[in-house]
Amino acid sequence: MEIAYLLVKQLDGTLSVEEKNYFDNWIQESDDHRYLFLRLKIFYHRGHNISKVDEPNIKLYRSKIKKI
Of 1, 46, 43, 32, whose CA–CA distance to 19 is shortest? Predict the structure, then answer.
């Protein structure tokens, strides 16, 4: 299962029992997982659309890094 899909479904409250079990196992695996989910939850509750993730513009970010 793709975790990004499950994170959104968890926030929407639409996980199936199987998905909920997978999510629960994933979130208990590490503090990083819990931190990521809590950050997404904050964005979600502030009204941000987290279900559509745009691919970053890699060339733009690389050019900014080179200037630093």
Answer: 1
Q: Which of 27, 24, 51, 34 is nearest to 16 (CA)?
A: 24
Q: Is the pTM of this model over 0.70?
A: no
**Burial readout 28-48 (b: 16 or more C-beta within 10 A, e: otherwise):** eeeeebeeebeebeeebeeee
Measured between alpha carbons, how far is 24 from 64 in angstroms, rounded to an integer? 38
Over the chain (68 residues), the average pLDDT of each successive run of 10 is: 87 94 96 92 82 54 55
Supply the pLDDT for residue 59: 59
Q: Decide: 57 and 8 in contact? Cβ < 8 Å.
A: no
